[in-house]
Design goal:
Layout (H helix, E strand, L loop, with lengths): L1 E2 L4 H11 L2 E10 L4 E10 L10 H12 L5 H12 L13 E5 L7 E8 L4 H11 L3 E10 L2 E9 L9 H15 L16
Antiparallel strand pairs: 1-3, 2-3, 2-6, 4-5, 5-7, 6-7
Helix pairs in contact: 1-2, 1-3, 1-4, 4-5
Amino acid sequence: MGRDKVGLLAKFCGVLALHNLTVLSAQIFTWPDGTVVDVIEVVPSTSRTFEELNWQTVERDLNLAINYRLDVGYQLYQKLQSQGYRPVRQIQQLERKVIIDNQTSQNYTLVDVYGGDSRGTLYQLTQTLADFGLTIHRAMIATEVEQLIDVFYVKTTADGKLTDPAAVEKVRMTLMHIIGAEEAEPETAGPQRQP
């Protein structure tokens, strides 16, 4: 729990990836007073057990990151480059798409992302939303057999929906690039869910 900041979820995801933790699921909520409640379920992405992880270092890095004293993006990039990280195997039937939905909710733009789950992807997705000035007010993150399924409820810095068609397309194309999707026609409506 804490005060909401732009890019807060990205910092959490980046630090967890730095410490070889894979996000299995997450539920993120922002209360009307700006308090965020994030519940993130993780598993080690290496052969180490939870007991072998240095949880004090994870906590320290989370605190440094949310106080803008840890360059998460650069450190994660360096780590992945030095390890020559590549996904272990490609699943043939992975669904890869981005849907930006302004119909389901009266107050939020919903960004649905379906893609492969590889180390650093969740950080890149959430950081990209922050870079476009979008605040994540609610999120549902799930990984099922290496299929990443994320739903982000976002607002602009002006506290409204993302409605400008050019901006919507820029966000969609950037997220499509991150998940490695081939170019496709824009999708603007998603499955029915809670407003």
